Design the sequence.
């Protein structure tokens, strides 16, 4: 099964700062890649996904992610964060029947 | 369209008790799965099913049973609850297998908070 690594456990930012969260998975082949967000007390919501085509994927709420196949990476970015982006972010890789998640990154945005 | 529905949302069990977490989806999805979420560990796959009558183990299956008698329902049974099973449980479903042209997204339920004392 895939192993998914998220580089940061907790990121603290000020509003309007740029955000980048790293995600690497363990092996290649055809994979589907996802970023999910979980706001406090809520369930997972899909931010964006990559299946094929343009490696730069745009999602909801101004987020984007870039798939770099040679680096097995799928990093999430947002140019200017807001207080409402405070949440936990999960990278996920779907390989065969299984969706494997990273440990998550808690993002705290200070007003 | 209700999507993926999990019940109960909150449950407290005593060690050794058994219970079933219910999951139902009304989207005619073939693929269903159960995850548990623990701090610092992300979500880990417990069991999954690729269609009615077919189930398989995920990453952390011990202490849990599943069955898939219908397309809509995928209950998760805790046979003899242990404090280590205190967690948040998420059910998920998807309309097709991965790597298809449509590349279908997995939809999650709202979670079930389980405490075993």
Sequence:
């Amino acid at each position: 099964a895939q192993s998914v690594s998220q580089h940061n456990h907790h990121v603290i930012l000020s509003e309007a700062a740029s955000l980048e969260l790293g995600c690497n998975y363990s092996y290649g082949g055809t994979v589907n890649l996802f970023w999910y967000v979980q706001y406090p007390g809520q369930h997972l919501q899909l931010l964006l996904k990559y299946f094929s085509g343009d490696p730069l994927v745009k999602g909801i709420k101004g987020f984007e992610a870039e798939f770099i196949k040679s680096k097995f990476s799928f990093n999430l970015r947002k140019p200017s964060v807001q207080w409402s982006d405070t949440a936990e972010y999960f990278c996920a890789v779907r390989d065969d029947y299984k969706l494997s998640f990273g440990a998550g990154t808690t993002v705290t945005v200070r007003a | 369209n209700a999507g993926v529905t999990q019940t109960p949302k909150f449950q407290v069990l005593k060690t050794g008790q058994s219970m079933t977490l219910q999951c139902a989806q009304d989207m005619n999805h073939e693929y269903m799965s159960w995850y548990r979420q623990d701090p610092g560990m992300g979500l880990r796959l417990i069991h999954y099913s690729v269609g009615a009558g077919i189930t398989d183990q995920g990453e952390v299956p011990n202490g849990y049973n599943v069955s898939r008698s219908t397309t809509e329902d995928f209950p998760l049974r805790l046979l003899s609850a242990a404090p280590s099973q205190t967690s948040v449980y998420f059910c998920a479903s998807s309309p097709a297998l991965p790597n298809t042209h449509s590349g279908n997204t997995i939809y999650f339920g709202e979670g079930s908070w389980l405490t075993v004392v």
Observations:
- Residues 52 and 71 of chain B are 5 Å apart (CA to CA).
- Chain B has no helices and eleven strands.
